[in-house]
Design brief:
Shape: globular
Number of strands: 10
Helix content: 25-40%
Number of domains: 2
Strand content: 25-35%
CATH architecture of the largest domain: 2-Layer Sandwich
Structural class: alpha+beta
Largest sheet: 5 strands, antiparallel
Order of helices and strands: EEEHEEEHHHEEEE
Radius of gyration: 18 Å
Number of helices: 4
Distance between the termini: 40 Å
């Protein structure tokens, strides 16, 4: 809708989710671009819900967190409207962010994180202490192939991070070329003031 606002040549689509779609960037094999849409509803105004999202994404660009994918750029593309139920009009914002390209975790790694982390999308809260995490990893290592040290590093940094991800599940955990686990999908996150 507004290609003049995109400073990259978009390549093939890699995936999508509730908040947007992710694409390769031509000529930049280590980066991806996520185009996001934020719809307004009667109980939520765009002017109230977009600023905290922008704060998280811009904050990660300025101050990277080891537990999060590195963000290289972020921009608001504009406000638009669409025809909605009963021919009413619904406002929405479009924005994007460019982040490091990560790899999917393995099935075994996914099982480990399913055991250890909260699943906000399912309403399951888990907050295991370091001793419990270590005990669980020892047991899981008997049947699954994963790097326990990197999992522990991720869990420790996740708990310390000022970025609270509100949609944590295995689809939002990936890993970098060095094998470090990182969170993606920052449209449902917030900054914690400590």
């Amino acid at each position: 809708m507004c290609p003049e606002k995109i400073p990259h040549t978009v390549g093939s689509k890699l995936g999508d989710g509730a908040d947007g779609e992710v694409f390769n960037i031509k000529g930049q094999p280590n980066k991806v671009i996520k185009f996001c849409v934020l719809y307004e509803y009667s109980y939520e105004k765009l002017e109230e819900i977009y600023p905290p999202i922008s704060e998280v994404i811009s904050g990660l660009r300025e101050t990277p967190e080891p537990v999060c994918a590195r963000v290289h750029a972020h921009a608001f593309m504009g406000q638009f409207t669409r025809t909605w139920y009963g021919n009413s009009r619904q406002r929405y914002y479009l924005y994007y962010y460019v982040m490091e390209k990560l790899q999917e975790i393995t099935e075994d790694e996914g099982k480990v994180f399913d055991s250890l982390i909260s699943h906000e999308d399912l309403g399951k809260k888990k907050n295991f202490g370091p001793a419990k995490v270590k005990k669980m990893l020892t047991g899981l290592a008997r049947g699954l192939d994963f790097d326990a040290e990197r999992v522990t590093f991720f869990i420790d940094n996740y708990k310390k991070s000022p970025v609270q991800h509100l949609d944590v599940h295995t689809r939002n955990i990936m890993k970098d070329a060095a094998g470090n686990f990182k969170l993606i999908d920052f449209d449902r996150a917030q900054i914690i003031r400590r």
